[in-house]
């Protein structure tokens, strides 16, 4: 995946995850991109621990794995902030 596609993918995943976790007002576009990209890495790691594949491209499965990772990342950050 090219760097531009990773940025777009990260922005989309991060934005949807922040909507689900109700943190969209606290995050800007840059933080959404960062959350989405780190979420894709985290989601891929979680799925590899479970014996499944990670994010291999811009597919529905890859999107769902990245979304799972981004939601977990936001939940961890929210827990640490409290």
Summarize the structure.
The chain is mainly alpha-helical and 82 residues long.
List low-pLDDT spans: none
What's the overall average pLDDT, rounded? 86
- Structurally, the number of domains stands at 1
Topology as a string of helices (H) and strands (E): HHH
Structural class by SSE content: mainly alpha
Lay out the secondary structure.
Layout: H1 3-20, H2 29-49, H3 60-81
Helix pairs in contact: 1-2, 1-3, 2-3
How would you describe the overall organization of this protein?
This protein is an all-alpha fold and 82 residues long. It is built from 3 helices and no strands. The chain has one domain. Helices cover 74% and strands 0% of the residues. Helix 1 crosses helix 3. The protein is globular, with a radius of gyration of 12 Å. The model has no long low-confidence stretch (mean pLDDT 86).
Primary descriptors:
82 residues; mainly alpha; single chain; 3 helices
